[in-house]
């Protein structure tokens, strides 16, 4: 008996469609595994609100990174006054309506100084994002290390670190930062002209915000480690004579990236708001560094005469913080498999 082999004829230049891989025993198509990161990204892609928040956040970050290019295109820097744009007969208020908005000054000019508001806002965005992200990174790193040490070590180490966390969480953060920022600034450095170094002030702000923010991450990580250290894979690592650092860095830490990422995503907008509040109160960023909080503080004096000076930076700050909060909520929902989704 002979066996006939049938060949499938296909048109010239085409390739027959490959069949999906099948299980050797059942003949069913094989199921491709997906990593937790890929599953989280798929959930984010299905959430339109999170995608919009992500797009807005990326847009703000690109504007901050391209601040020198954007201001070069407009021809005005953050500390380049335009005396022709303000009217000395009206108390140096901008010419025209809407705060002097024109093709020359896209968002108008500052009353009294003639600074281009677009340049001030763009460079102020860089300041806000720098302080927000830098303090969030520093507080997250310190919080993860403290949480790992407290949760895994237990005993007196856990007791001491837990009491320190309780004390830090009990502090009224904003009041202590207001009190400590000038003190630390004066203790570290005073420049040769008797003024304050604006770059050092940024460093002091980052350190002060991080000092009062790390306890939140540490408390979260400690709770996760207390649960993970009793799991079978940790016991197996101990049986195989794995060292403490191997268990902390290779066994526990990879299982903490989801809550740590969520904590970081939610800390950034909170730190930006704190920095803007400090600058509004006069203990944050100092000139010549532009800052949105300082802009709002100056604009409050001219609200009745020039409402756009207060409205524009206020609305932009609201949009930025709202987008970062929505993005943080979306990341939390995407990384939490127990979160309910429609």
From TrEMBL:
Taxonomic superkingdom: Bacteria
Coiled coil: none
GO cellular component, one term: plasma membrane
Cell membrane keyword on record: yes
Transmembrane spans: 51-73, 129-152, 164-188, 200-221, 308-328
SUPFAM superfamilies: MetI-like (SSF161098)
InterPro entries referenced in this protein's UniProt entry, alphabetically: BP-dependent_transpt_permease, MetI-like, MetI-like_sf, OppC_N
GO biological process: transmembrane transport
Keywords, comma-separated and alphabetical: Cell membrane, Membrane, Transmembrane, Transmembrane helix, Transport
Chief location: membrane
Keyword Transmembrane attributed: yes
Region (Disordered): 1-32
Topology in membrane: Multi-pass membrane protein
Location(s), subcellular: Cell membrane
PANTHER family named in the record: D,D-DIPEPTIDE TRANSPORT SYSTEM PERMEASE PROTEIN DDPC-RELATED (PTHR43386:SF1), OLIGOPEPTIDE TRANSPORT SYSTEM PERMEASE PROTEIN APPC (PTHR43386)
Record family assignment: Belongs to the binding-protein-dependent transport system permease family.
Name this polypeptide is given: Dipeptide transport system permease protein dppC
Source organism (scientific name): Streptomyces lincolnensis
Lineage of source species: Bacteria, Bacillati, Actinomycetota, Actinomycetes, Kitasatosporales
